[in-house]
Amino acid sequence: MAGKAIQSQEGTEGCLTRPEGKAATSSCGLALAIIWTLSRALGPAKESIYALESPKGYIVLGCWEPKRKFQMKAFRFAVAVVLFALPLFASDSYENELSSALVNHILVLRNYYTDARLTFDSNGKLTSKGTPGFGPSDGRVYVRQVQLEPGKLTLISARPLDVFDQDTQEWQFVPTATTISIELSLPADEAANAAVSRLISAVFLKKSELAAVQCSAAERQEFLEDLRMRMNHSSPVAKPKLPDATNLADVHPYCLPGGDRAYRLGRGIKPPHAKYTPDPKYTDAARNAKLQGTTVLLAIVTPEGLPTAISIQRSLGAGRNDKLRPLGYQLDQRAVEAVSQWRFDPAKFQGKPVPVVINVEVNFKLY
Question: pTM of the predicted model, to two decimals?
Fold first, then answer.
C-alpha cells in the first residue's frame, strides 16, 4: 500500500490514529475507529507506535501499551470483538453492493434453464436438475433479492412476462408470481467479490453474448409494425403471394421481443394443431366483478409441440377502470398459465417439425 510511516509522540493519549474521510465509512475504517475510541477511553499510553498513512486513512502497524494491566485486558477483549465482527460488516457491505447491481435487473441463464430451483458449484457447474429452454426468454430471470451467506450466494428471482402497452405502443415487462431460486457455491479460498464476479459470468450470459442473440433494430421494427397492424385490425399492404420455399434457409424467421426466433406460417410451413387445451381458471375477484373478455397472447410452438416465449399482445385489463384493470391483469396471468400447459402437434416444413409463431385468443366468459 502506498503511503508513509509516521510515529506518534511518546506519552500521548491512545495509540491508534483515527481513520478520516472515506476510510471512516469503510468496514475496516469503522473497526479502526471503534478501537481508536476504546483506546482513548481506557487511558493514556506510555509507548509510541507506528501507523501507515495512505489515501484511504491509516492502518495500525504498532501496538498500544497501557499503564495499567486491567486496561490491557479490556483493550484486548475489545479488539477481539471488533475483529470478529469485521467480516460481518464486510459481508453486509458487499451484499448491499450486490443488491444495487443485481436487484430489479434481468439476467439470462446460460442454456436458458426453465427450472424453479437451480444450484451451481464453485466453478459454475450445474449440480441440480436443469431443463434447457428454447431461447433467451426461457432463461430470463428478474432478480428480486440477493442473499449472501458464508459459502453461498442466492438470487431470489421471478420470471418476467412481456406485455404490449397499447398506450405507448411499446413492449414492457412485468414480473410474474413464479419464483426461481438460484444458488451459487462460493469457494472458501477466494475473495467473495472475485468469486461472485467469476460465477455470475459462468452462470449467466455476458452483455456481449446477450447482444448477439437479441433482435436487430430492423427485426424489432418489422415485428412492431406487423403487431401494430394486427392490434389495430389494419389490413397489411397487399403483397404478391410468395411460392413455397424449397429450403428452410430461404424463409425469414420472426424475432420476438425476448430474442427468440421462429417462423411465420406460409411458404410451405404447415400450422401446428392443438391437442390438449385446458381452460384458464377465473380468479374469485374477477368472477365476483362479473368481468369477461379476451386476452390475446403471442407464443412460439417449438418443434416438440410445446408453447414458449408467451407474451401478452392485448391485455384484458387494458381500457378498464381503476377497479377492473388489476382484475383484468390477473386474468391475463391465468391465460398465460393455461396456455403454457397446452400441447400441440408441431408445425412442419417438408415433413420436419419447425418452430412457429402463433396468436392465441383466450376467452373469459361467465355462463
Answer: 0.73
- Indicate the DSSP class of residue 34: H
The number of residues in the chain equals 367
User: Under 8 Å CB-to-CB from 109, ≥6 apart: which residues?
Assistant: 118, 139, 140, 141, 182, 203, 204, 205
How far is the C-alpha of 226 from the C-alpha of 235, rounded, in Å? 10
Measured in degrees and rounded to the nearest 5, phi and psi for residue 221 equal -65, -45
Note whether 301 and 347 are within 8 A (CB).
yes
Give the separation between CA 88 and CA 102, rounded to whole angstroms.
Answer: 21
H helix runs in 103-156, sequence order: 136-139
Measure the CA–CA gap between 363 and 347, rounded to whole angstroms. Answer: 24
Helices 69-102 & 27-42 angle (0-180, nearest 10): 160
The residues spanned by each domain of the chain are 4-101, 106-213, 217-364
Instruction: State whether CATH 1.25.40.10 applies to domain 217-364.
Output: no
For 136-186, what is each residue's pLDDT tens digit?
A: 999 999 999 999 999 999 999 999 999 988 778 788 888 888 899 999 999
The grid cell for 315 is: 391485455
Q: Show Cβ contacts of residue 347 under 8 Å, excluding neighbours closer than 6 positions.
A: 263, 265, 269, 270, 271, 272, 301, 353, 354, 355, 356
CB 183 within 8 Å of CB 152: yes
For 33-56, the pLDDT digits (tens) are: 555 555 555 555 444 333 433 333
Q: In angstroms, what CA-CA distances link 340 with 12, 18, 161, 300?
A: 74, 61, 12, 10
State the CB neighbour count (10 A cutoff) for residue 251: 18
